[in-house]
Amino acid sequence: MRRPLSVLAVAATTALLPGHAAPPAQEGPPPTPVRAVRAEVRSVVQRESVSGSLRTASDARLAARENGAVESFEVREGDVVKRGDVLAQLDARRLQANRAMTVARAAEAEATRIRWDAEVEDAELDAAALEKARGGDAISERELRQARTRLKVSRANAQAAVKREEALAAELLLLDIRVNDMTIRAPFDGVVVERHGEVGEWVVPGDAVVTLLSVSKLEVWLDVPQRLAERIDSSRTSMLISAGADRLQVVATEPKVVPRIDPKSRMFSLVARIEGESARGLSPGMSASAYLPVGKEQETLMLPKDALVYRPGGTGVMVVMGQDEGGASVNGVAALMPVTVMFETDRDVAIAPGAVRPGAAVIVE
């Protein structure tokens, strides 16, 4: 872990370039205390810069599943909705009336089944009594055969009544599903981007009613050169990306390679998910970039990202120039040194060899 220098007294701040001598000390305000760290060489994995864009994980045109007139829209464009929220309501009166008739037929079928159950019970008692009295002059074979036939018919009718009840129960279940489908609900958290049609308009199955866009679940699609195809670490579970105009840094999870190379650009795609709080402030279509770890570990000069100074002429860092004995507190003049950033890690940047040397005191605050 890099330890910051406790106090660093800087006599003046100027924009010195490498090779320029510090100006002579002049009378003026006292030195300004700042915080700094030592530039250090570490063994890190090289990273390659790639870019792409954000896409929504879900973009749905929610369609009608039944015939009917649009009774109401419960949302407008731009409304944020949760999964299960009602978006639109279709006229379900015809289906509800059909369901009421089916409920009545189901009650009638239940009564029929009860009657046939009673018939079976009575026929079983008759057949049992005749079987017991069999052999006497009072009971003929014809009467016994008729009793047995009546029992079989009663049982068959009772079984048919049960099947009729089951069929009507399934019909009721289907009608409940159809009535429920007349209410169009959000299948995921998102934002309404378009309403199709108007109240009173007739729709048929397949007609779009509302278009819903997911904003809590995004995907980052990065374009990766084909030369890196064999160097991408497929075991990674997450990656750090920068997205949007403000270059927000968020963690994307479940990175996966799409193994198809575009014959024109010679690029393939790397896809990762951005969910929950990580997706806050981001929108589909925003640009995105990342530094992908590729290759093997190598000795590289590393600096904190806080040390970077962005100027119109390029990127630099403020280095303390002057006598430095390597202690926790040094005095000197702050000079702006141009640097070339090779790649980034979570907190640091890798600097190409140049004006900044290992052990240099670099201002971070």
Rg: 39 Å
Can you count the helices?
2
| Share in β-strands | 35-45%
Give, in spatial order, the strands making up the sheet with the most strands.
Answer: 17-18-19-1-2-22
Which stretches are poorly predicted, pLDDT < 50 over at least 5 residues?
11-23
Query: What integer is the average pLDDT?
Result: 83
Number of strands: 22
Largest sheet: 6 strands, mixed
| Main structural class | alpha+beta
Distance between the termini: 18 Å
Instruction: Summarize the helix and strand pattern as letters.
Output: EEEEEEEHHEEEEEEEEEEEEEEE
Helix content: 10-25%
What are the SSEs and their pairings?
Layout (H helix, E strand, L loop, with lengths): L4 E10 L17 E7 L1 E17 L2 E5 L4 E6 L6 E2 L4 E5 L2 H40 L8 H41 L1 E3 L4 E6 L6 E2 L4 E6 L3 E9 L12 E6 L4 E11 L8 E9 L11 E18 L3 E4 L2 E8 L9 E8 L2 E4 L3 E4 L9 E3 L2
Question: Can you describe this structure?
Answer:
By secondary structure, this protein is an alpha+beta fold. It is 22% helix and 42% strand. It contains two helices and 22 strands. It has helices at residues 93-132, 141-181, and strands spanning 5-14, 32-38, 40-56, 59-63, 68-73, 80-81, 86-90, 183-185, 190-195, 202-203, 208-213, 217-225, 238-243, 248-258, 267-275, 287-304, 308-311, 314-321, 331-338, 341-344, 348-351, 361-363. Strands 17-18-19-1-2-22 form a six-stranded mixed sheet, with no helix packed on it. A hairpin with a 2-residue loop joins β17 (308-311) and β18 (314-321). α1 runs antiparallel to α2.
